[in-house]
């Protein structure tokens, strides 16, 4: 177990196009964080946001352009991967096809003194000596195989295992070395939905039981939410938010974070917010939305500013809809009025079964909204209705 601190960690790659000019690819920018002993941190972000680069700097496979990496308070920025006692599990392909599962597991231990990286990259270990006797190694192999649930397959070769089973073996091979820190780079990405989630849950349990500190990279939101004690959201190489999954969902730091945490889409409007002692009013620039609420918006810490430009956003799962004439609005939490511009048509589309009874509003162009709703709501809405939407959770961004 170990704590991990990053201080201003930055990586700039000079590439052919930019060499000679100022800068280069800013893969990771000024990342600061502290991961506690035994914590499972999920590093989450879109493709190309710098996740792998950051993980490689933590492992010691890549040198930061600036900043420091501390493990248990000790500066390891310039230490080799072996000195850090960190184990990495990749997406696929890290097992040796000509060895049995038992031999794959033992291999990691036999190479321990010769450098763990050799076990992952296939490079020679240059005559390393085993630190453990063969009996001790066999004992450890049995022990980890039991814990990770791969004991029945110890004599099989990787080709005789499914993708999920192979990933379990890869995990066991990382765990058998008893690393201080476990780094997982999309280890479940090659697996299908249900197996992937089942393995994610199991992985979490394994890490909990062993009290291991781990950093798990993914761009899959469900996986991130299933696994994380805390989520670090990386966008364009910047750490935008580091908090519990619940907190990031409820209070995303900015619009891009909110979009990443909105699997069914995010309805967003740019407009003016005006505030007085009684509450607030919002008017979208394109005239497609007017909203009001009789409570101050604490999140924005607005005092008595007359008017300011903001982005207001609503997730589909936080909306309900009713035609103003037909249905009473019972949840007084928030009421929005959506008024299609004069002469425009309200277009209805089926969203499909995964919309959880929610409404998706898509402002496609100024003054026009496209409504989508599910079967339960069909009939409540007339094309010419003035529509009211209940927003249970309204998000604001400056
Ligand atoms: P993915 O989810 O697709 O794996 P990622 O979030 O892991 O993406 P990185 O692989 O860390 O992203 O890449 C971050 C940025 O750094 C990208 O723009 C990438 O093109 C660039 N990059 C990564 N490695 C190098 C390199 N060796 N040389 C130049 N640019 C690089």
Structure description:
By secondary structure, the protein is an alpha+beta fold. It folds into 2 domains: 4-260, P-loop containing nucleotide triphosphate hydrolases (Rossmann fold); 267-397, no CATH class. It is 24% helix and 31% strand. The protein is built from 10 helices and 21 strands. The protein has an 8-stranded antiparallel β-sheet, with no helix packed on it. The radius of gyration is 26 Å and the shape is elongated. The model is unreliable at 113-130, 296-301 and 321-388 (pLDDT under 50). The structure holds adenosine-5'-triphosphate. Adenosine-5'-triphosphate is lined by residues 13, 15, 25, 27, 45, 47-53, 219.
Properties at a glance:
sn-glycerol-3-phosphate import ATP-binding protein UgpC, Rossmann fold, 24% helix, binds adenosine-5'-triphosphate, six-stranded mixed sheet, elongated, 398 residues, eight-stranded antiparallel sheet
């Amino acid at each position: 177990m170990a704590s991990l601190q990053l201080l201003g960690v930055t990586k700039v790659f000079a590439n052919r196009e930019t060499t000679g000019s100022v800068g280069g690819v800013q893969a990771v920018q000024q990342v600061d964080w502290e991961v506690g002993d035994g914590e499972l941190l999920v590093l989450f972000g879109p493709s190309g946001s710098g996740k792998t680069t950051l993980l490689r700097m933590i492992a010691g496979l890549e040198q930061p352009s600036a900043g420091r990496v501390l493990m248990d308070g000790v500066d390891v920025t310039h230490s080799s991967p072996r000195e850090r006692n960190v184990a990495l599990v990749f997406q696929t392909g890290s097992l040796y096809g000509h060895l049995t599962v038992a031999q794959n597991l033992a291999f990691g231990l036999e190479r321990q003194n010769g450098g763990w990286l050799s076990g992952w990259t296939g490079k020679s270990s240059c005559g390393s000596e085993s630190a453990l006797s063969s009996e001790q190694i066999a004992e450890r192999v049995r022990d980890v195989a039991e814990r990770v649930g791969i004991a029945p397959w110890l004599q099989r070769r990787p080709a005789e295992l499914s993708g999920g089973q192979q990933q379990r073996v890869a995990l066991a091979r990382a765990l058998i070395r008893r690393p201080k820190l476990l780094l997982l780079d999309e280890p479940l990405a090659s697996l299908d939905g249900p197996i992937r989630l089942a393995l994610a849950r199991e992985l979490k349990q394994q890490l909990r039981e062993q009290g291991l500190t781990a950093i798990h990279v993914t761009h899959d939101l469900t996986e991130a939410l299933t696994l994380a004690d805390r989520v670090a959201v990386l966008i364009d190489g910047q750490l935008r938010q580091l908090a519990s999954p619940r907190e990031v969902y409820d209070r995303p730091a900015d619009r891009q974070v909110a979009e990443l945490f909105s699997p069914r889409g995010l309805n967003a409007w740019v407009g003016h917010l005006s505030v007085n002692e009684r509450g607030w009013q919002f008017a979208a620039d394109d005239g497609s939305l007017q909203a009001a609420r009789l409570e101050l918006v604490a999140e924005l810490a607005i005092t008595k500013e007359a008017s300011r430009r903001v982005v207001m956003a609503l997730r589909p799962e936080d909306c309900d809809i009713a035609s103003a004439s037909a249905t009473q609005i019972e949840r007084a939490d928030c009421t929005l009025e959506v008024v299609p511009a004069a002469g425009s048509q309200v277009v209805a589309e089926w969203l499909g079964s995964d919309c959880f009874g929610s409404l998706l509003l898509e402002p496609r162009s100024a003054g026009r909204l496209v409504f989508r709703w599910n079967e339960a709501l069909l009939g409540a809405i007339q094309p010419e209705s003035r529509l009211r939407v209940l927003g249970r959770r309204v998000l604001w961004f400056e």
